[in-house]
Amino acid sequence: MLSEQTVAIVKEITPLVAANAETITRRFYERMFEANPEVRAFFNQAHQHTGGQQKALAGAICAYFTHIDNPGVLMPAVELIAQKHCSLNIKAEHYPIVGENLLAAIKDVMGDAATPEIVNAVAEAYQFLAGILISREADIYQHQQSQPGGWTGKRSFVVQRKVCESSEVTSFYLRPADDEPLPTFLAGQYITVHIDHPKTPTSPRNYSLSDCPDQPHYRISVKREKGQQESVPGGLISNHLHDSIDAGQTVDLGPPCGEFTLDLVRSAERPVVLLAGGIGVTPLLSMAKTLVNRAIDTPICFVQAARNSDVHAFANEIEELAGRHDDFTYKVLYDTPPDAGQGRRCDHVGFLSADLIGQWTPYGDADFYFCGPKPFMASVENALEQLGVDPSCMRYEFFGPKQELSQVT
């Protein structure tokens, strides 16, 4: 446990740290990548470029300091971080690197205000949190390794099939190259793709598993990320997968990870509402397929938002699921009116709102799972709050560095 003195010091400096948190985290990454370039491979440089990683770490530091006297509040965040670390194969020996550079960054930014007492207190607080994470990550690694066919680190897979799902999304069906068993996963989890890109070193990428568990393959469905401006290139790995990885080729994968998972026990007792925006459909599709394939007779409502019919993926697959379940409602909305002759259903043109959720879903007693672009996520949370949905019934996932939805504008 942390000493009373450390808790008191950390509580006292929290406002000052919060005021300088992003400056500290920017300096932290600068120092760490310069002093320990070997860890750069763990970090998505696109998130570094946009500042998303720095903001997420700043938020995490502030949250930890604020709740330093009640760390139990942070356990959901600890689980998210531990799962992410295990997806990247981060080990206990990496923690001192982070600790040393974080303390150095605090000294750089706070200057004389970072007294020896403050630095020692922050060091103790960091070591305490690191111990919690290392312990949880050891459990995750042990679980991964102990499953039939389980592994940690990298394992080679063969691309069995490559299927175009829309103008932007392509699915990759992946089977173990060694023909050994394939461990199961929880609906909503992701795997990690390791690519040796021919042009530049890149970090691993997490992609949600879009099929249900207990299949002879893993399936990921990748959106081609296009650059929004000339100065911002398109997604390096997503474009490489679309353009250069074909059936018969091999890729290295990390094992399934992630805490955004379907609660099958609750799902047997309560309606399930799945709200998908864009490529956020992938983990929710895995959840829907799991519920239907396991013949769980709870009411299911699947709402899918897409920009237009051209980029609308998995329509036929979800329609097929609805046909196999006695109480499955499927609704589709587009940002813009569908093109004539597309033959796709469209139940509403515009954005998902509290009124639509109220009309289409059993919101009063349902569990909500939602995933999509940040504005979509913020809008959904706001709509659910308007409808009086309890936060304990809302589960969501960000693709990218985690932050509170209230921070999204």
From TrEMBL:
The record marks Y29 as: Involved in heme-bound ligand stabilization and O-O bond activation. It catalyses: 2 nitric oxide + NADPH + 2 O2 = 2 nitrate + NADP(+) + H(+); 2 nitric oxide + NADH + 2 O2 = 2 nitrate + NAD(+) + H(+). InterPro entries: Cbr1-like_FAD-bd_dom, FAD-bd_FR_type, FNR_nucleotide-bd, Globin, Globin-like_sf, Globin/Proto, Hmp, OxRdtase_FAD/NAD-bd. Its EC number is 1.14.12.17. It is an enzyme of class 1 (oxidoreductase). FAD binds at Y190, R205, N206, Y207, S208, F398, F399, G400, P401. Residues 1-138 form the Globin domain. Residues 149-409 are annotated as: Reductase. GO terms for biological process: cellular response to nitrosative stress; nitric oxide catabolic process. Consists of two distinct domains; an N-terminal heme-containing oxygen-binding domain and a C-terminal reductase domain with binding sites for FAD and NAD(P)H. This is Flavohemoprotein. It comes from Crateriforma conspicua.
